């Protein structure tokens, strides 16, 4: 390279007026409506937006790839002078996996279960004969080491199902890095991971991208994550660009109202209220799936009209606790006391009245509703079953319930497939409310939703609590949600309760080790957060 | 590895247990068949005493459970008993051992099945993989339509069409496939050409369509998209990324069709006058030759069990999750 500082020489990727259509409901709809994107060598761009904003589609289009059911209808994609919009499959294949690499959201699903990790890692580099096979394998081991994978020498000989999700995600980064590409597309690479794992994967990715000066497009819906990774951020909505700015500027002075609303979700915080009247308590509960013991001496007490948040990583026993309370999984020891009386351990031994008072809302609203029933049938069923309402009375009550969840009676005849993600979850809330419960168990009810939709659901839950004095047991792994909704917090780890207390007590130092790890791992909207955190942890 | 071995041993044990259950079913259902061998042989004119004596000689006078355990006991020692046929009212006994009757026929059947499998399985895999590779093209449609046509045509009809073309209009192959123990290998292959071709046309469609479906089913997986984005070509995606994950369903359908080749080809045997085990069993049922019928039925059951076991094992050893547990 000469001293020529003409900036255009550094441009690696130049996408102009990209238009992509997707096929659904028997016709083509525009998904991306004329977006421009420019990326220089070594730069990292963050691409954020809610689901359906088209960020993943745009990210893949940067490779000249559109998934089945989508087509590129206009625009140019200049990658290092080659127009990928016009290139043949053959030309694109020569670039894919060698000069442009892709890191997918679900590593577990994106590795071929039939091949060893190392074979998949070196596959792309070997196909184009970038270097001899033996060198590729040595290099892969070095990449595994650089990504801080355990046993870098031998982990490659394992199969995908033999390593954890966080490790797989790092192996996939090594796989992308193996041919030393000029550009990597990271497509929500940490969304499926626990916060504590996410930190490790993020820092490993950031280091290696810096080390090889690779350009990257980092796609995510999590602002705090993108703040750690990107030099600048582009916000997408409905397939159009909202705004683009350097990371620090974007975080401190977003210009568009939409961007500001994205930022504001994390500001939602409810003041805690102490509760004395215990409605439900779990006393010394042990539980097991077959021979595997998953809960050890769990004690939780839930005050009436309050929200108790149960937090912990996946596998910590949060959902199992919910199953014990509802009677789906009878505990092997201990008891569940409701309104001062012990509940029968198994679901089938409980009275209708006891069943009615404890309702549940699930994470996946999709699978929690019968796809063949209309909204009226879904909400009407508990009305009939618990309260014996039929005909006009039932219909009137369904309309009232729809009002309570801020939907109108035009939804009565719709099927679940005709609802958005947030609306589906609202219907599930209405179904739980229909039984006039005292306690509602919410199992990760907002995890599958976008941030803005999440905020709406959380505010609805808070309002209902105020109006009807409902008690929530709120299971989540998201600390921002916990801050937003809870009065008390229970921290769980490996089937045990680490601590329980008021939100202000739990979220204030000094922390037990695990709570400290969990809280410190939650990304913050500060570009220096990861750097500072790693520095802190190393000392 | 030990886990896999113990799984296989467990399946093998289950297979043997199944075989015992099947033997009981065979025995009881044959006992329920109407008619009686001694009456059939001796004719309606026979006196009650002659029939009783004859029944006694054959051991048919004993109670069914006793006969069952005697039969199972001797089968376990490799003795399938003596055929009923060859005896007659005059008291002459030219009957033969069941093993001597069944074995040559079984070998003939296995020979025909083997030749057919050698043609049909690679052909079906090739057609299935290429149809998946070029799916929704003219090639895919032609292959699908052609195999559907052959499977929808009754097999005797396929056989006669082949005879018309390859034995009558262009006499390249013989229309009769009558072979015996002394026929040399080359001659055998020549004579079974048409029956093997008939059976190939009958079974290829099922295997081909299953292969195609198993592969296409996997093409929507995220790891296939990943392979594409790593620059793999279409054929690499099919052969290297999809096929290794599709062996289990493919093996199952191949096993099913191979079993059919052993137990279900009596029509084709009749058309080509091929001395296979299917004809033997049909003849034995007509003449109420109970020991032969039982032996054939047991062989058929064992064939199904063995081939399905093989398919299971292929399913296990091609699945890294089972082969390499966490």
UniProtKB/TrEMBL annotation, chain A:
Belongs to the ABC transporter superfamily. It holds the Pfam family ABC_tran. PANTHER family: ATPASE AAA-TYPE CORE DOMAIN-CONTAINING PROTEIN, OLIGOPEPTIDE TRANSPORT ATP-BINDING PROTEIN APPD. This is Nickel ABC transporter ATP-binding protein NikE. PROSITE patterns: ABC_TRANSPORTER_1 (PS00211), ABC_TRANSPORTER_2 (PS50893). The keyword Nucleotide-binding applies. InterPro entries: AAA+_ATPase, ABC_Ni/Peptide_Import, ABC_transporter-like_ATP-bd, ABC_transporter-like_CS, Oligopep_ABC_C, P-loop_NTPase. One of its GO terms (molecular function) is ATP binding. It is a peripheral membrane protein. Keywords: ATP-binding, Cell inner membrane, Cell membrane, Membrane, Nucleotide-binding, Translocase, Transport. It comes from the Bacteria. Residues 13-263, 273-519 form the ABC transporter domain. SUPFAM superfamilies: P-loop containing nucleoside triphosphate hydrolases (SSF52540). It is found in: Cell inner membrane. Gene3D superfamilies: P-loop containing nucleotide triphosphate hydrolases. NCBIfam families: PRK10419.1 (NF007739). The keyword Metal-binding does not apply. It comes from Hoeflea alexandrii. CDD domains: ABC_NikE_OppD_transporters.
UniProtKB/TrEMBL annotation, chain B:
It comes from the Bacteria. Coiled coil: none annotated. Gene3D superfamilies: MetI-like (1.10.3720.10). The chain crosses the membrane at residues 12-33, 110-134, 146-169, 189-208, 246-272, 292-317. Keywords: Cell membrane, Membrane, Transmembrane, Transmembrane helix, Transport. SUPFAM superfamilies: MetI-like. It holds the Pfam family BPD_transp_1_N. Belongs to the binding-protein-dependent transport system permease family. This is ABC transporter permease subunit. It comes from Hoeflea alexandrii.
């Amino acid at each position: 390279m000469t001293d020529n500082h003409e900036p255009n020489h550094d441009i690696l990727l130049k996408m102009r007026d990209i238009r992509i259509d997707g096929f659904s409901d028997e016709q083509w709809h525009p998904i991306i409506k004329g977006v421009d994107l420019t990326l220089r060598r070594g730069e990292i761009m963050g691409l954020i937006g809610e689901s359906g904003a088209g960020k993943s589609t745009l990210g893949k289009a940067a490779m000249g790839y559109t998934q089945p059911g989508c087509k590129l209808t206009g625009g140019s994609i200049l990658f290092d002078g080659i127009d990928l919009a016009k290139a043949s499959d053959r030309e694109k294949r020569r670039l894919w996996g060698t000069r442009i690499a892709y890191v997918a959201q679900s590593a577990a699903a994106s590795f071929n279960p039939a091949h060893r990790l190392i074979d998949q890692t070196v596959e792309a580099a070997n196909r184009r004969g970038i270097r001899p096979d033996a060198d590729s394998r040595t290099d892969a081991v070095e990449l595994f080491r650089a990504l801080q994978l355990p046993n870098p020498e031998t982990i490659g000989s394992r199969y995908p199902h033999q390593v954890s999700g966080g490790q797989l995600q790092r192996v996939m980064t090594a796989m992308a890095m193996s041919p030393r590409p000029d550009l990597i597309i990271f497509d929500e690479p940490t969304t499926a991971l626990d916060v504590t794992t996410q930190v490790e994967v993020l820092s490993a990715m950031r280091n290696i991208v810096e080390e090889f000066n690779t350009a990257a497009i980092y796609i995510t819906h999590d602002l705090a994550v993108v703040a750690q990774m990107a030099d600048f951020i582009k916000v997408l909505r409905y397939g159009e660009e909202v705004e683009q700015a350097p990371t620090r500027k974007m975080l401190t002075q977003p210009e568009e109202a939409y961007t500001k609303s994205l930022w504001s979700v994390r500001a939602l915080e409810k003041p805690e209220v102490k509760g004395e009247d215990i409605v439900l308590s779990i006393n010394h509960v042990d539980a097991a799936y077959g021979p595997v013991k998953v809960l050890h001496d769990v004690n939780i007490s839930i005050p009436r009209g309050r929200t108790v948040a149960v937090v912990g990583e996946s596998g910590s026993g949060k959902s199992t606790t919910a199953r014990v309370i509802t009677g789906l999984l009878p505990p092997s020891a201990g008891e569940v006391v409701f309104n001062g009386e012990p509940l029968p351990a198994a679901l089938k031994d409980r009275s209708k009245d006891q069943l009615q008072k404890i309702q549940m809302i699930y994470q996946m609203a999709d699978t929690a509703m019968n796809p063949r029933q209309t909204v009226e049938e879904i909400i009407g069923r508990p009305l009939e079953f618990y309260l014996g309402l039929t005909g006009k009375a039932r219909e009137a009550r369904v309309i009232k319930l729809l009002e309570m969840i801020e939907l109108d009676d035009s939804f009565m005849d719709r099927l679940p497939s005709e609802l958005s993600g947030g609306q589906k979850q609202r219907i599930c809330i209405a179904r739980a409310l229909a039984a006039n419960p005292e306690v509602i168990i919410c199992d990760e009810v907002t995890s599958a939703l976008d941030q803005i939709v999440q905020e709406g659901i959380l505010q609805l839950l808070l309002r209902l609590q105020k109006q009807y004095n409902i008690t929530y047991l709120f299971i989540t792994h998201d600390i921002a949600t916990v801050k937003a909704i809870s009065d008390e917090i229970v921290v769980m780890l490996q089937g045990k309760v680490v601590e329980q207390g008021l939100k202000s007590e739990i979220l204030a130092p000094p922390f037990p080790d695990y709570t400290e790890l969990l809280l410190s791992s939650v990304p913050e909207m500060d570009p220096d957060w990861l750097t500072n955190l790693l520095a802190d942890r190393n000392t | 590895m030990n886990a896999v071995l113990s799984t296989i041993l467990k399946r093998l044990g289950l297979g043997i247990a199944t075989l015992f259950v099947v033997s009981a079913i065979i025995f009881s259902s044959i006992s329920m068949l109407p008619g009686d061998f001694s009456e059939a042989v001796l004719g309606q004119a026979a006196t009650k005493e002659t029939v009783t004596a004859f029944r006694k000689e054959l051991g048919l006078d004993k109670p069914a459970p006793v006969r069952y355990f005697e039969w199972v006991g001797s089968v376990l020692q490799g003795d399938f008993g003596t055929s009923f046929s060859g005896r007659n009212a005059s008291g002459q006994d030219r009957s033969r051992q069941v093993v001597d009757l069944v074995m040559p026929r079984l070998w003939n059947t296995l020979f025909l099945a083997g030749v057919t499998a050698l043609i049909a399985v690679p052909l079906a895999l090739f057609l299935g993989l290429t149809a998946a590779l070029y799916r929704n093209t003219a090639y895919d449609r032609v292959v699908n339509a052609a195999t559907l046509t052959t499977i929808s045509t009754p097999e005797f009809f396929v056989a006669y069409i082949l005879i018309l073309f390859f034995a009558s209009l262009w006499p390249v192959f013989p229309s009769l496939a009558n072979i015996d123990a002394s026929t040399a290998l080359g001659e055998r292959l020549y004579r079974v050409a048409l029956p093997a071709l008939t059976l190939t046309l009958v079974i290829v469609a099922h295997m081909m369509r299953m292969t195609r479906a198993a592969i296409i089913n996997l093409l929507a997986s995220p790891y296939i998209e990943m392979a594409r984005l790593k620059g793999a070509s279409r054929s690499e995606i099919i052969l290297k990324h999809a096929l290794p994950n599709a062996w289990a369903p493919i093996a199952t359908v191949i096993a099913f069709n191979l079993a059919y080749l052993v137990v279900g080809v009596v029509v084709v045997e009749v058309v080509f006058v091929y001395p296979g085990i299917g004809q033997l069993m049909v003849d034995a049922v007509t003449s109420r030759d109970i020991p032969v019928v039982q032996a054939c039925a047991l062989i058929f059951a064992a064939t199904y069990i063995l081939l399905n076991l093989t398919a299971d094992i292929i399913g296990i050893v091609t699945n890294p999750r089972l082969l390499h547990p966490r």
